[in-house]
Amino acid sequence: MTILYNPISSARRKPVLPMALLALGALLEGEHDYVIVDGNLEADPAATLDRLVRERGAEVLGVTVMGGPQLRDAVPVCRRLKTLHPALTIVWGGYFPTQHYDVCLRAPYVDYVVRGHGERVFKAVLSALGRGDDPAQVPGVAAPGGAATNTLALIPHPDELPDFPYHRLDVARYVRPTFMGRRTLPHHSSYGCPFLCNFCAVVNMVEGRWLAQSAERTARVARRLVETWQVDAIEFYDNNFFVYETRTAEFAERIMDLDLAWWGEARIDTLLKYTDRTWDLMRRSGLKMVFLGAESGSNETLRRMNKGGKASTEKTLEIAAKMKAYGIVPEFSFVMGNPPDPEADLAQTIAFIRKVKRVNPHAEIILYTYTPVPLAGTLYDEARARGFRFPETLDEWISSAWQDFAQRRSAHVPWIHDPLRRKVRNFERVLNAYYPTITDRTLTGLKRSLLRTLGAWRYKTGFYTFPIELRAFHRLFHYQRPETSGF
Ligand code: B12
Predict the structure, then answer these.
(1) Is 169 within 8 Å of 38 (Cβ atoms)?
(2) Domain over 2-146 is classified CATH 3.20.20.140
(3) CA dihedral sign, ordered 192, 315, 288, 368
(4) 369 in ligand 1 pocket by Cβ < 6 Å?
(5) What is the whole-number distance in angstroms between the Cα of residue 125 and the centre of ligand 1?
(6) Residue-wise over 18-37: b if at least 16 C-beta within 10 A, else e?
(7) Three-class secondary structure assignment of the chain
(8) Per the confidence metrics, is the pTM higher than 0.90?
(9) Whose CA is nearest to atom 42 of ligand 1?
(10) What is the pLDDT of residues 416-462, one digit of tens each?
(11) Dihedral sign, CA of 10, 409, 337, 97?
(12) Domain spans of the chain?
């Protein structure tokens, strides 16, 4: 038997449907005996896994791992399981092992790493193990000692994969309230992204490819989520949902009768090419908000990020205005404090964000600082030249400093010193006070106007230093931005 394990991602928030494991399981249905264990729903996940090995004879443990909290859980759980059951084969997959496979394989409790979109590869690993062959020979698998083929898994076409085996989980436990609706579930309708932005982890997963489910199938899944779990909102976690306009338009038409709210991620330049008809369809079908990587207030920085020749600050302003007209909220993310002159970069992007807010006050702003991903020939090389190094062991990765790094609150990026980080945080606090987010459902009308009044003088005068009164408000009301503490 095989166990698919989703490590604990947060003790505080309601768990998110582990779609990676549903994707792996979909290919095992009817051919391999398997069970999905979600650490977020277990009192003692390691004890549950141990019991499954002892009582049901599980031979393989597949673990999905993201940097941050999931890694912090995966390390001790796998270490304990391997100590108790040395014959158990432990396979890691997901964003963290795909990028940092070498560090993972140095740990004695990780036998193999599957790199990239791994459902077919994982099935091939199980078959190889069943036959007594060496899974290290399967393309997409990395194994210790250099015996690895160590290529990326070939991305399977999502339309050729079976539907998620939802019956393997108690899906109702994953239905969450969000700003869009009372009952929200996610779906992932495409793999990859056709762009090669050099700060983005997705490039390491798919190397610039994008493959999607048809509009018809995506709409069928949406209908199933509505009919089976009565959802009123869907979050599309696709890296880039909107690549192909025809698909988006057809999807919007097909879900028109469902009375759904929906959310997805897009490129600004792609959306600017959409026709008015498609915009109208998207609005009428319930599209509420789109996450867009604006990244910077500097065209030079956008160029250095390899954002693609068509990205520009002018386009960010253009889409902000367009989305205001359609009543769809743009959620712009920015990467602050980039080299070579982080101070000037920060000042420029802050000034730009103020401009965006003038064009569209409803625009949501999400601030990150650059967190390197291991992509040769890019910003990562510059980071290395400035002394940046990734940890060499998993124990170091789960230290609190590197946990912060994985969650983009880094103390490890040489060019971002404390005063700069503080400046970003202070600006963010004032901005979020003067323009309270609509995505926090706990922020009632009264709190919202109080916050806005408190932040007004600072925002208007541009004085962001020591916002102690806003910090106090934050402590008092536990105000947080759900999407930044999410992904
Ligand atoms: C849903 C999600 C979450 C959920 C977690 C869901 C869960 N498993 O419980 C939540 C909200 C908790 C979350 C949190 C975070 N996330 Co997150 N998350 C996502 C998101 C949007 C979708 C993931 C998903 O379901 N994909 C669909 C499935 C089908 O694809 P997949 O997960 O990639 O799985 C495939 C392969 O990776 C592989 N695979 C995966 N696991 C396994 C296991 C085995 C054994 C094998 C063989 C293969 C395999 O095969 C799968 C099928 O093809 C991705 C972006 C994206 N679009 O993928 C970001 C993403 C993975 N998250 C990211 C980040 C940074 C975070 C946070 C660290 C952010 C933060 N500010 O704190 C946190 C912390 C993680 C944690 N708490 O542990 C980054 C990772 C960047 C990086 N450098 O690695 C991503 C890529 C977003 C981004 N574009 O930056 N996240």
Answers:
(1) yes
(2) no
(3) positive
(4) no
(5) 22
(6) bbbbbbbbbbbeeebebebb
(7) CEEEEECCCCCCCCCCCCHHHHHHHHHHCCCCCEEEEEHHHCCCHHHHHHHHHHHHCCCEEEEECCCCHHHHHHHHHHHHHHHHCCCCEEEEECHHHHHCHHHHHHCCCCCEEECCCCHHHHHHHHHHHHHCCCHHHCCCEECHHHCCCCCCCCCCCHHHCCCCCHHHCCHHHHCECCCCCCCEEEECCEEECCCCCCCCCHHHHHCCCEEECCHHHHHHHHHHHHHHHCCCEEEECCCCCCCCHHHHHHHHHHCHHHCCEEEEEECHHHHHCCCHHHHHHHHHCCEEEEEEEEECCCHHHHHHCCCCCCCCHHHHHHHHHHHHHHCCEEEEEEEECCCCCHHHHHHHHHHHHHHHHHHCCCCEEEEEECCCCCCCCCHHHHHHHCCCCCCCCHHHHCCHHHHHHHCCCCCCCCCCCHHHHHHHHHHHHHHHHHCCCCCCCCCCHHHHHHHHHHHHHHHHHCCCCCCHHHHHHHHHHCCCCHHHHHC
(8) yes
(9) 93
(10) 777 888 899 999 999 999 998 887 777 788 888 988 999 999 999 99
(11) negative
(12) 2-146, 158-296+362-395+415-486
Neighbouring C-beta atoms of residue 51, cutoff 10 Å: 12
Residue 94 CB less than 6 A away from ligand 1? yes
Q: Distance (Å, rounded) from C-alpha 20 to C-alpha 267?
A: 24
pLDDT in tens, 148-203: 667 888 899 999 999 999 999 999 999 999 989 999 999 999 999 998 888 888 88
* Ligand 1 site, residue 110, Cβ cutoff 6 A: no
Atom 2 (ligand 1): residue with closest C-alpha? 487
Q: Which residues contact 377 (CB under 8 A, 6 or more apart)?
A: none
The length of the chain, given as a count of residues: 487
Mean pLDDT of the chain: 91
Q: How far is the CA of 95 from the centre of ligand 1 (A)?
A: 6
